[in-house]
Structure formats: C-alpha cells, structure tokens
UniProtKB/TrEMBL annotation:
Keywords: Isomerase. GO terms for cellular component: cytosol. Pathway: Carbohydrate biosynthesis; dTDP-L-rhamnose biosynthesis. GO terms for biological process: dTDP-rhamnose biosynthetic process; polysaccharide biosynthetic process. Gene3D superfamilies: Jelly Rolls. CDD domains: cupin_RmlC (cd00438). This is dTDP-4-dehydrorhamnose 3,5-epimerase. It comes from the Bacteria. Homodimer.
Amino acid sequence: MNIIDTALAGVKLIEPSVHGDQRGFFMESYNERDFHEQGLLNRFIQDNHSLSAEVGVLRGLHYQLNPKAQTKLVRVTAGEIYDVVVDLRRGSSTFGRWQGFHLSVSNKLQLLVPQGFAHGFCTLTPNTEVQYKVDEYYSPEHDRGIAWNDPALAIDWPTSTPILSDKDSKHPLLADAENNFVYEG
Ligand SMILES: Cc1cn([C@H]2C[C@H](O)[C@@H](COP(=O)(O)OP(=O)(O)O[C@H]3O[C@@H](C)C(=O)[C@@H](O)[C@H]3O)O2)c(=O)[nH]c1=O
C-alpha cells in the first residue's frame, strides 16, 4: 500500500497492493492495521455503496457538521468518477480550495477525505459504482451541502449540465453555508 499526499493537508490517495495472476487479481481493499501503522487512525463504522446509472451524474458537494463529521475512504468498483474535495476548515491556508481526482475500477485508487471537507463526484461511465467507508454514522440533521457550481469554487467538472438530485440542485454557496470546522493542523 502506497500513501500519496495531495495539495490539501490531510487528503490522501491510497494505492493498494494489487496481486494479479492468470485468474485476475486479489487486493486488500482495507486493512486497519496497515492504516494505523501509517498514522491513519480512523475507526470506520459504516460502509456505503451507490450506483449511478448514467454518465454525468453529480452527487455533492456533501458534508456533515460536527459532532457528526465524517472521514470518508472512497473507491470505485465499477466505472470511473471525477472525485472532488473542498477544504471547509476555517483557518486552513487552503480554505475554499478544491482538488479533483480520477478514481476508477482500473486504477483502484482510494481517496481519504478527512473531516472538514465537502465531497462530491461526477460519473464518467455508465453504471458507476462507488463504495466508501465512513467513521461516523449518517445523520440527516447534520447533513449539509454546498452548490456544485459555486462560482467562488470554480470547480472544473467534466460537464456543465450534470444530472442532480433535487436536494443537490438547492445547496447554498460556500459563503452562505453553515460550517463549524476549525483547522487543527
Ligand atoms: C448518505 C446516506 C444516505 N442515506 C439515504 C438518505 C436518502 O434517502 C438516500 C439518498 O441519499 P443522498 O441523496 O444523500 O445520497 P448521495 O447523494 O449519494 O450522498 C452521498 O454523496 C457522496 C458524494 C458523499 O460524499 C456521501 O457522504 C453521501 O453524502 O439514502 C442513508 O440512509 N444513509 C447514508 O449514509
């Protein structure tokens, strides 16, 4: 397993060790001991799985307020996504900055999204399946979103006409969004 730092402190790309042979491959998609040895001490308690049928489905940008903030460990098990994180940590030198990553069933990269980040993705393939672990339970009362097309963020999404849920078409701009994350770098 290889852990790659990104431009945003705390956001990491995880490259698992993939053992290929004539049958296909085997990999450990998560190993708590290896994560702990690398200082990634989260305790993941819920696994999520979504299917997006069409290309251009955009889910996001989502986060949960404290004390129900979530760390997410995201991977793709069918197709490919453009996965985006936005730093919402007040006091962070990268507050309001975003970064995007291509995650796919082929590259098997996983993205570790810390608490204090909004997260969203856009599908690049039909029938895309995303699976992710979280370290806090889903809490509808703490569930929040930021507009995917907030001009202040200027995220370079793969489409300007995504397929959205009703909820995701109504999120506030970052400047108007509730946020109780403090940077503790
Ligand atoms: C996220 C979530 C949703 N649900 C329910 C609520 C709702 O009825 C239905 C669909 O929820 P949503 O529309 O919020 O699903 P979705 O838009 O896929 O939400 C997800 O988006 C990505 C980008 C994330 O980062 C995730 O944390 C999560 O917010 O599933 C749960 O029961 N548990 C959960 O953990």
